[in-house]
């Protein structure tokens, strides 16, 4: 066999609970994949998501089912035939990219002919709570340039209003996580305008988003749960104005880049997001997020402790992980990481 593959579960405790309309998280449950070949190692992390029918066990089983083909040298193109889009393929795809860079003595961005990772302006998230507590949370990040507000169907105008009052200059993304219906979305239009919301992310359940057909929203609407891969884009036309690209949905960097290209060609605005995860899961997303209008990569910032050489953030300015952390061979020249936020 040409390669050795290992896959394991890793749990990352959170510093504080993370609440959305579907529930609360106290830890990030991840799958870490390592692939070794020729004395080099590629690694990556993904986060199985229950919303998409995934568990740690199911993702590990999927990877195990593809083990022999991967060990025998399956390419990233062949991987798309072995594994469906999702967390299992994401971990393997990104590990293969890392391995390829190690074997080439180069970097993933050089192989892709892209600029190296830059400092990004990421959204900082206010998780779901009472309006009062959400306002208090927003006050602690009041000078951030971009804030994401998790809401539900109970009292979203008050939740958003409390955050806007505490962070008057921030751009706001509102994320109901599929908890609204079309009537509530329609009723919320005046409040969304008055509170100067920049984007509403997946307000309706993905299975019910046909109700958005022809709906004229005062605020752009972004597809998250409704958009996984480039093949989803045709049915999103006329319903959404933006798409949220996440590696755990696309099944890795390969499809994420293809989705970004196709989405731009189709006139969609681009958001790049992540699950609650460590820096290892976020590192490849820096290559997708360059030039995106909205970046939401604060997943590692929720952890009690992250990788020591992982990403760093100051007030939403997210700095890439240290040289050699992911996607770059040891000793390869790091081509000028930008010092300013995008």
What does this protein structure show overall?
The structure is a single chain. The chain has 342 residues and is of the alpha/beta class. It is globular. It contains 14 helices and 14 strands. Helix 10 (233-236) links the parallel strand 9 (221-223) and strand 10 (242-245). An eight-stranded parallel beta sheet has the order 5-6-7-8-9-10-11-12. Strands 1-2-3 form a three-stranded antiparallel beta sheet. The protein has two domains: 4-106, Enolase-like, domain 1 (2-Layer Sandwich); 120-319, TIM Barrel (Alpha-Beta Barrel). This is Dipeptide epimerase. Residues 131-222 form the Mandelate racemase/muconate lactonizing enzyme C-terminal domain.
Strand-helix topology:
Blueprint (H helix, E strand, L loop, with lengths): L3 E17 L2 E15 L2 E7 L9 H10 L1 H5 L4 H7 L4 H18 L3 H4 L8 E2 L2 E3 L4 H9 L6 E5 L5 H11 L4 E5 L6 H6 L1 H6 L2 E5 L19 E3 L9 H4 L5 E4 L1 H4 L2 H13 L3 E5 L5 H4 L3 H4 L4 E3 L15 E3 L2 E3 L23
């Amino acid at each position: 066999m040409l390669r050795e593959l290992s896959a394991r579960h890793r749990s990352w405790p959170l510093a504080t609970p993370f609440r959305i309309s579907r529930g609360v998280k106290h830890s990030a449950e991840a799958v870490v994949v390592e692939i070794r070949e020729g004395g080099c190692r590629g690694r990556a992390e993904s986060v199985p998501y229950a919303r998409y029918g995934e568990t740690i066990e199911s993702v590990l089983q999927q990877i195990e089912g593809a083990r022999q083909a991967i060990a025998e040298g399956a390419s990233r193109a062949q991987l798309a035939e072995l594994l469906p889009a999702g967390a299992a393929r994401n971990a393997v795809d990104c590990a293969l990219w890392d391995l390829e860079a190690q074997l080439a003595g180069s970097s993933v961005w050089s192989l892709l002919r892209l600029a190296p990772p830059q400092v990004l302006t990421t959204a900082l998230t206010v998780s779901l709570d009472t309006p009062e507590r959400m306002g208090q949370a927003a006050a602690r990040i009041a000078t951030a340039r971009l804030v994401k507000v998790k809401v539900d169907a109970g009292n979203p105008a008050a939740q958003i209003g409390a955050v806007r009052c505490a962070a008057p200059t921030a751009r706001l993304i509102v994320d109901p996580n599929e908890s609204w219906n079309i009537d509530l979305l329609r009723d919320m239009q005046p409040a969304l305008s008055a509170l100067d919301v920049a984007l509403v992310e997946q307000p309706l359940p993905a299975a019910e988003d046909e109700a958005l057909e022809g709906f004229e929203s005062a605020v752009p609407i972004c597809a998250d749960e409704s958009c996984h891969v480039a093949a989803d884009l045709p049915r999103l036309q006329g319903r959404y104005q933006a798409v949220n690209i996440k590696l755990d949905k696309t099944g890795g960097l390969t499809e994420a880049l293809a989705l970004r290209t196709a989405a731009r060609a189709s006139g969609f605005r681009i958001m790049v997001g992540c699950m609650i995860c460590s820096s290892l899961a976020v590192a490849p997303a820096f290559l997708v997020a360059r030039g995106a209008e909205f970046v939401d990569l604060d997943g590692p910032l929720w952890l009690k402790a992250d990788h020591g050489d992982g990403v760093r953030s100051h007030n939403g300015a997210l700095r890439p992980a240290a040289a050699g952390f992911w996607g770059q061979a040891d000793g390869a020249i790091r081509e000028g990481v930008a010092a300013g936020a995008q």
